[in-house]
Amino acid sequence: MASLREFEELLGRLSSAEKAQVLKWVVQDLGDAFPGIESRPGVCGGEPCIVRTRIPVWMLESARRQGVTEQVLLAAYPALRAEDLVNAWHYARAHAAEMDLQIRENETA
User: Which CATH number fits the domain 37-107, given the four candidates 3.90.1170.20, 1.10.10.10, 3.40.640.10, 3.30.160.20?
Assistant: First the structure.
């Protein structure tokens, strides 16, 4: 893997259009990063969870769709913070099809 120094040298040789394309790729790559949400093999079947917990995002989203308020969720899961819910809602919105599938799969399990 190239070092940052090598990348910096390569970047200096790129045209403005090429730099713009690299920037577009970086932004797209970072756009799928959701702070506070992680998927790890062996934890909840690899499903996206709130960091520091084993609370899957699909479960929170399912509860929200059923009308459970954030206050109730925070009271029911003391490890959750308000910012965790914000991160979960952003993730769920960006991955709506994935959430629908996980909710269906877990409701029938």
Answer: 1.10.10.10
